[in-house]
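One example given next:
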Amino acid sequence: MRVRTAIHRLLALVLASSLALSAPAAWALDGPAALSGVIRDAARTPLAGARLWAAPTGGARLFRSEPAGPDGGFELGGLPAGPCDLAIELDGGLYVVEAPVVLVPGIKRAVQVSVGRAATGPLSPAAEPTPDAGGARSSVWNNPLSAGLIVLGAAIVVGAVVKNVTDDEPNATEN
């Protein structure tokens, strides 16, 4: 009986810890989203002076970054959450990024965008997103709230299994 009580207390501690760790993550997902990253050409050379434009899907407002620094770096904040179309302004042209990004409230998403450039010709009409150098991937584990809920659910399942295994009463079967 003492072993079962100790196991139940341990499971209660694990569940309480999971809730305590996931609750701050839920509150962190409030506020505007942001983008930061680097604008490059096809040869991966940073494009100083380029600007990133963001247009939230279904929104009437456009957002524009300050000119990119010498390293091609930019930051753009105050964006609403949800899907957002991107474009690069460079040398009087506007080059649309083919794939939209999905923004999460309160999270600064790192992106790298590149403008295709022919070997000796002008810029091509489309920009292409490139994978983030930091290895960030769209995953349920990137969202702290989702990860906390998954851990909590796993703890509940483990608790139910342990309770059934440590149950003192054997199952009655009729002959």
